[in-house]
Amino acid sequence: MSVTDTTPARRTEWTLYERLEELRLIKDEARHGPDPAATDRQHAKGKLTARERIALLLDEGSFHEVEQLRRHRATGFGLEAKKPYTDGVITGWGTVDGRTVFVYAHDFRIFGGALGEAHATKIHKIMDMAISAGAPLVSLNDGAGARIQEGVSALAGYGGIFQRNTRASGVIPQISVMLGPCAGGAAYSPALTDFVFMVRETSQMFITGPDVVKAVTGEEITQNGLGGADVHAETSGVAHFAYDDEETCIAEVRYLIGLLPSNNRELAPTVLSDDPHDRRSDALLDLVPADPGRVYDMRAVIEEIVDNGDFFEIHSGWAGNSLCVLARLGGEVVGIVANQPATTAGVLDIRASEKAARFVQFCDAFNIPLVTLIDVPGFLPGIEQEHNGIIRHGAKLLYAYCNATVPRVSVVVRKAYGGAYIVMDSRSIGTDLSFAWPGNEIAVMGAEGAANVIFRREINSADDPEAMRRQKIEEYRSQLMHPYYAAERGLVDDVIDPRTTRETLIGSLAMLRDKHAELPSRKHGNPPL
């Protein structure tokens, strides 16, 4: 018989030894849950328990649990007979590589991890503690939404979580790890956090489930087809990362935490790098074709530049024409934004602009310097893009860069055309230092398009229009697109040997390390959301 069952008949006189034995039994029940078979059911689904997940996330032996003995006070619908300890959520703090991290984990074995009033209050408390302590917050989500039996009290609990997510935004890193279902209003808490991790076949996120979708629209779809990991990592952009199993997913969460500062008043952790600061990258001369129309993988360029070729890509499956990565240069964490010529020629479109804008905002909020690698032919033209608001969405990236006060260094790797060049952290919008490789082409548009506009009459009236077109293209390129045109006008600080890019970036960021920039006094700006 459990301690919980005997609670009403407790004796009034106890020795301290008896009290300690009672406490041991109570805590043992809290750790293992009221139903041993529930753990087996969790494992049968291929899922770990909440405590097993916390053990993977935090350094061994570092977890300190808060309100382990909390129980709900609700009555009705049979709840008064079921008052398990923890109330279905485990909260506390520990360390990741010795640094404090706060965590809460839904325990699906208890009420399906559903949120009730006491459950929500525990989460509110640990969120408040994380904000006060200035330490990252990780949520391990595996819950069935609001506890229906508690009615509006459960819904109000979500409101308190959303409010704290918003208050913590830009103050401490917030990471949501989806390890089970997340439906209805519960999905909005992860959406408010900085990063969302998901596990394939295990986690789903949606506002209305497949049954509701079918009833309202007649469309039939599975849970994974509606809101699975790959859907959100590749189609909706809700998830930043998707993995095949929980162990890999949680290990990557640990790795990400190691790249982030604890709060917005600190810098990201520095490590000693055994990769020489002045290492020359001869491979860069062959990686990037001179022909601006030929594709290549910008990831290979990043790999050559950063410490030991190691980088952590954000949103790798979504908006592939824009790359956002965290890496180290000289042991210091940097955020790298780059165009990706291997995907739709690296053009900026709605998704790429949104992806890069949010990453720039994150880096700026947490004092992570920004490096921008530019090879962009412009914004993606088309009716769909225009009607879906490419102007408004492109302005998000423009706003994010213009508003950023962290050290900013940009490198024009190859071409940089039109408004997309301006948006990609050009000198005119405030980058601290702008460099270019010798093959750069910085212009309003490509030479072919420019010649067709400027010399239309000459070309059309020529005896050999095609020969005249080639002549005018070369004339425009030689006069307005030669590699030193922007440098001569002070729009590029230097044209550099590509092989020295790493050394140039490390030296520039070292100089800018103590950069201080003042923003106008205001409550907040009004970005083009």
From TrEMBL:
<keyword id="KW-0614">Plasmid</keyword>
<protein>
    <submittedName>
        <fullName>Acyl-CoA carboxylase subunit beta</fullName>
        <ecNumber>6.-.-.-</ecNumber>
    </submittedName>
</protein>
<keyword id="KW-0436">Ligase</keyword>
<dbReference type="Pfam" id="PF01039">
    <property type="entry name" value="Carboxyl_trans"/>
</dbReference>
<dbReference type="InterPro" id="IPR029045">
    <property type="entry name" value="ClpP/crotonase-like_dom_sf"/>
</dbReference>
<dbReference type="GO" id="GO:0016874">
    <property type="term" value="F:ligase activity"/>
</dbReference>
<feature type="domain" description="CoA carboxyltransferase C-terminal">
    <location>
        <begin position="276"/>
        <end position="525"/>
    </location>
</feature>
<dbReference type="InterPro" id="IPR034733">
    <property type="entry name" value="AcCoA_carboxyl_beta"/>
</dbReference>
<dbReference type="InterPro" id="IPR011763">
    <property type="entry name" value="COA_CT_C"/>
</dbReference>
<dbReference type="InterPro" id="IPR051047">
    <property type="entry name" value="AccD/PCCB"/>
</dbReference>
<feature type="domain" description="CoA carboxyltransferase N-terminal">
    <location>
        <begin position="13"/>
        <end position="272"/>
    </location>
</feature>
<dbReference type="InterPro" id="IPR011762">
    <property type="entry name" value="COA_CT_N"/>
</dbReference>
